[in-house]
Amino acid sequence: MAEPQQTLAQSIMQQIGMQIILGHYKDNMLPGENELAQQFSASRTSIRNALQQLSSKGLISIQPKKRSVINPRDEWNFLDFDLLKWVGKAGVSPELFKQLVVLRLMFEPNASALAASFATGADLADLEKAWFLMQKGHEQDSLALFEQGDIDFHYALLKACHNPFLFSIGNAIQEALILSFKHTQEKSARETTESVKMHKLLFDAIRLKDSHNAKKLMKEIILTAATRHFPNLDQEKYLDILDH
Predict the structure, then answer these.
(1) Does residue 126 carry a pLDDT above 60?
(2) Which of helix, strand or coil describes residue 142?
(3) CA–CA gap between residue 36 and residue 174 (Å, rounded)
(4) Are residues 28 and 124 in the same domain?
(5) Distance, CA of 83 to CA of 20 (rounded, Å)
(6) Rg of the chain taking only CA atoms, in angstroms
(7) Would the pTM of this model clear 0.70, i.e. be above it?
(8) Residue 168 has what pLDDT?
(9) For residue 87, is it within any domain?
(10) Is residue 96 classed exposed, middle or buried when 0-12, 13-18 and 19+ CB atoms within 10 A define those classes?
(11) What is the pLDDT at residue 172?
């Protein structure tokens, strides 16, 4: 009987979480447990389990014998898989999108430089395989193939750094990176010519152990994709801040 209850609590958590992201609760307070139990036709135990999960994500603070409070946005755990999924469905705001760009600029160019220094033959094979998948997606006009190749490429790049701490950080922010990929992706795989070309140049820089050029190319890949989605993005501003 425990599994169905957990499934119900998970479903309730997903629904309430999405409503929080959408700003459904205007007074920054959730309804009381009894009201939520009635709304979802669930036991108070299921409601409490759902609220505990939301609390672990930083979305709410549970108050004994009081209604749960919705926490300020800067207390939310934006590396949480569910939270990022809800944000993706609700639509990424321009400000949050800029912060995703900053995250990528802080992380991926330096990882590219490390990969150029430490990539093995096996790492290069993984990177090339991912690039070929991107190219195949472009040629077959398949965004699904292109997107998978893009994700595989960046995952292989992190592995090529051969740094367990960096790889763990990469795993932690993986969903944030995927969210960024999805929101900077071309509308058609036929429009990915430049992206395929740039990733090939990056692969070649890593293969030739050119750390400086690998770092530079990754910055260009990120900012080119970002300005496609957000044309008014001040590239120089972000580069100036992150390069000093």
Answers:
(1) yes
(2) coil
(3) 33
(4) no
(5) 10
(6) 21
(7) yes
(8) 86
(9) no
(10) middle
(11) 77
